[in-house]
Amino acid sequence: MKKRLIAFDMDGTLTQHKSKLEEPNRIALETLSKHYKLLMIGAGSCERIYHQLNDFPIEIIGNYGLQHAGIVNGEFKILESLSVSVDRDFVEKTVTMLRKEFGFEKFYGDNVEFHASGVITFPILGTAAPLEEKLVYDPDRLKRRKVYARVCEAFAGYNVFIGGSSSFDITQGKYNKFYALERYCTENGYTLDEAVYFGDDFGEGGNDSHVKLNGVDCVEIDNYRTFPEKAAKFFQ
């Protein structure tokens, strides 16, 4: 079926982790936008994603489906912002227990990051770790995959994702990137067969994995600098 919608992960797909969109990737997005509806589906907040993309005019779903933003009359606007309640005491105690079990007890800043949406980040290096340390910590995700099953066990009933460069993202209920894409398609007149998704982590625990597991056509990016080459296959 002809594709009409292209959705993207950000960190590792369009950009280096927590880094700005580079010009070759911006040009590729501009070219795609002439032929397809473009949609960002991220783990972080819509505002952070928008600014990381250097204010590229694109519709954004953030926080695994809890937030939605777009460009209205030329200006960035939050269209929906949901929040789920979090048992902070349980989360703090569980992360502290896991740190002791895994030897992750030295960290910068806070033990846990609680987002306003209810998404939880377990930052192995802490909330204030220098970017350069985060980038070299676990580039192949093997360190986190080694302990992933145990983190899932400790957070039974939650969704646990290998997120960013050195953390785990934790959500509740239905919130994951496939849910976000499926809901968007349903509400905006697209079918999943008309969508393609660009991501960098479809492996076990990867926060792009639900999209592929549910049968959406996916393009895997192993280095964000290869994005223009991969995207060129969709230029018309």
Quickly list its features.
236 residues, alpha/beta, Rossmann fold, Hypothetical Protein, Haloacid Dehalogenase-like Hydrolase, Chain: A, domain 2, 2 domains, seven-stranded mixed beta sheet, four-stranded antiparallel beta sheet, 8 helices, 11 strands, globular
Could you describe the 3D structure shown?
- The protein is globular and about 55 Å long.
- It is of the alpha/beta class and 236 residues long.
- The longest helix is centred in the middle third of the chain and has 15 residues, at 88-102.
- It folds into 2 domains: 5-82 and 176-234, Rossmann fold (3-Layer(aba) Sandwich); 88-172, Hypothetical Protein, Haloacid Dehalogenase-like Hydrolase, Chain: A, domain 2 (2-Layer Sandwich).
- The chain has 8 helices and 11 strands.
- Strands 5-4-3-2-1-10-11 form a 7-stranded mixed sheet, with helices on both faces.
- 32% of the residues lie in helices and 22% in strands.
- Strand 3 (59-62) and strand 4 (67-72) form a beta hairpin.
Can you lay out the helices and strands and say which pair or pack?
Layout: E1 5-8, H1 23-33, E2 37-41, H2 46-52, E3 59-62, E4 67-72, E5 75-81, H3 88-102, E6 113-114, E7 120-123, H4 131-137, H5 142-154, E8 158-163, E9 167-172, H6 177-188, E10 195-199, H7 209-213, E11 217-220, H8 227-231
**Which percent range fits the helix content?**
25-40%
- State the fourth-level CATH superfamily of the largest domain: HAD superfamily/HAD-like
Number of strands: 11
> Which architecture name of the largest domain does CATH use?
3-Layer(aba) Sandwich
Top CATH class of the largest domain: Alpha Beta
Shape: globular
Structural class: alpha/beta
Give the low-confidence spans: none
The side-by-side strand order for the widest beta sheet comes to 5-4-3-2-1-10-11
Oligomer: single chain
Largest sheet: 7 strands, mixed
CATH topology of the largest domain: Rossmann fold
Cα gyration radius (Å): 17 Å
What is the count of DSSP helices, taking H or I runs of 4+ residues? 8
Distance between the termini: 15 Å
Strand content: 15-25%
Structural domains: how many: 2
The arrangement of helices and strands along the chain is: EHEHEEEHEEHHEEHEHEH
Mean of residue pLDDT values? 97
